Amino acid sequence: MMLQMDGQAIAHSMGLRERKKQKTRATIVDVALRLFARNGYQQTTIAQIAEAADVSPRTVSTYFPAKEEIVFDISVESRLRLAEAIRSRPEGQDTMGALRDWVLDERKIWDEDEERLLCQRSVIEGNESLIAYERAQLREFELLLAEGIAVDLGMEPGDLEPRMAAAAAVGVFDLLSDEKDSHKSAMASKDEQLRVLDQALTFVTGGVTAMREARSKQNAPA
Questions:
Q1: Span 53-71, pLDDT tens digits
Q2: Dihedral-angle region of residue 54 (phi above 0 means left; psi in -120 to 50 means alpha; beta otherwise)
């Protein structure tokens, strides 16, 4: 009984520590994004971020070894959720279906974090090195989709067909950004984004299906 209580106490203590770490991390990101937006990304130092977040510079560097990681912390969390959605998708659901479900789930988070995301966007667009960093992040996003599509097709992620389909899927998000920019009403924009998403994913899914059928014919016995 004593051991059980000790175990519960340890678990509770670990839970408190984890929540404190998450809070510290979120504070650093929020403070840093505001400083980047106000003073410029290059001009803002780790020491200034630490002072504004009421932590030490060492703490900032422990959480974020590179300054770019602070800007893209939100994006990394989102990509991890996508990886989980694709790799643990239920039997019968393809990668495009998992991607759509992920977008719908992420939109709830995007709505809650809209201010932070807008701030992040302005910081990225104001710095060429961050734009390049974002392209590298998109490449990882594309590789993740290729991994899932390869499973759908019974192929390897490095094969041409999964890579082509993944590149097309990544292009969907450029369409969503364009649609959002072209509407003044936030509600209308969300409806339009969902419409464009469904159209684009239907297009990509059709291509994946055609490739799957062509592969089946190639492998069929003569």
A1: 999 999 999 999 999 999 9
A2: left
